[in-house]
Design brief:
TIM Barrel; binds pyridoxal-5'-phosphate; binds iron/sulfur cluster; S-adenosyl-L-methionine; isomerase activity
């Protein structure tokens, strides 16, 4: 699968379809060329870019927003953090997070097939760590063997499916060898950005283990192509349930009809909408973030327009380690100025989240 990794390739493909690159994007590439560090690299797949160019106007815009970098990624809003989920203190060793009692998360690689401009693991994704080594996996297996309260392991990153099938199966086999009953969640955007990666061999290999679930990341109905449908079908045929996590993004899916179409189409594809996330307070993502006040309005209306099966949980990860909180669509208390919602974290402490 061809990857697109520089501005010349990108602008040639866009120009051929009559789309031009704007000032914000040019400035991003110039800034990077000058030797800026600490940014999320540019990379996408030819397939995903073509999906944008073949979609209708709204679909095209929604996909390009996720692909094309913007100089505003270098801005840091006051409330934004390098470690927006406050995960560091729940990490007994590198690349392993045990934040919730019965679930642990392994960052199996920092590579992705495409770097989503809204990524909230952007301080890890596209970095210098590369794939997990056997030496790094060994203490994780030991920890899982010891911590019997853990029931699920999430393989994430980065995108675990940038690893070869052999490497991925080896990691799963290692986990299963210490705790055969563990549920393993494979979190990958490949069904969206490179559906061919979900080969029959991959699906059957995953399906040969018990308790494997697949979680992917569609944000707009235009991403749900016949190729994505075929990828999902291969997983389902191998006995692997498929769930979806979306992120609410400005100019991508922040209106009622886009969300409705996305979730209803996911259902038709056999994918259960699991979460809709409020954009995390990750650095350089404020131009893509939908104000929480508006997000709550949207999700409370949506609930009455689609079925319970189509409706995901709406959740926010509270900054500073308050945890992932499912927000009921009732009104939330605000501070005196009305600028922050006051939301109780998992530790029962009060956290402040910008409302506007
Ligand atoms: C989101 C998350 C999980 C999984 O939580 P679910 O609500 O079960 O999807 C596990 N660990 C960490 C650190 C997370 O951020
Ligand atoms: S595929 Fe996932 S980890 Fe990779 S850039 Fe996109 S959102 Fe981030």
């Amino acid at each position: 699968m061809a990857g697109i990794e520089n501005i010349t390739q990108l602008s040639n493909l866009l120009n051929a379809s009559g789309v031009s690159i704007d000032k914000h994007t040019n400035e991003w590439f110039m800034r990077v060329k000058k030797g800026s560090t600490d940014y999320l690299p540019f990379l996408t797949t030819e397939y995903y870019l073509q999906t944008a160019l073949q979609a209708d106007d709204a679909g095209c815009r929604a996909i390009l927003k996720q692909i094309i970098p913007d100089i505003r990624e270098f801005d840091t809003a006051e409330c934004e953090l390098k470690d927006p989920l406050g995960e560091e203190k729940f990490s007994p060793f590198p690349r392993f997070v045990h934040r919730y009692e019965d679930r642990a998360l392994i960052l199996v690689t920092d590579r992705c097939a495409m770097y989503c401009r809204h990524c909230f693991r952007r301080s890890f994704s596209g970095g210098i760590n590369g794939p997990l080594s056997d030496a790094e996996l060994t203490p994780m297996a030991g920890y899982l063997a010891e911590h019997r309260e853990i029931n699920e392991v999430l393989l994430t990153g980065g995108d675990p499916l940038t690893l070869s099938n052999e490497r991925l199966f080896k990691i799963i086999a290692r986990i299963k060898s210490v705790r055969p009953e563990l549920v393993v969640r494979v979190c990958s955007r490949m069904p969206v950005v490179n559906p061919d990666r979900i080969s029959r061999a991959l699906a059957d290999g995953l399906g040969s283990y018990e308790g494997i679930w697949f979680v992917t990341h569609f944000n707009h109905a235009a991403e749900l192509t016949e190729y994505s449908r075929a990828a999902v079908r291969r997983l389902l045929a191998a006995g692997i349930p498929v769930l979806n996590q979306s992120v609410l993004l400005k100019g991508v899916n922040d209106d009622l009809s886009s969300l409705k179409e996305l979730f209803q189409k996911l259902l038709r594809f056999g994918v259960k909408p699991y979460y809709l996330f409020q954009g995390d307070l990750a650095r350089g993502t404020s131009h893509l973030r939908v104000p929480l006040r508006r997000a709550l309005e949207l999700t409370s209306k949506l609930k009455y327009e689609i079925s319970g099966m189509a409706m995901p949980r709406f959740a926010v990860d509270l900054p500073g380690g308050g945890g992932k909180i499912t927000l009921p669509s009732q009104s939330h208390p605000v501070d005196d100025e009305g600028e922050f919602y006051i939301i109780k974290g998992l530790d029962n402490e009060e956290y402040r989240y910008p409302a506007n």
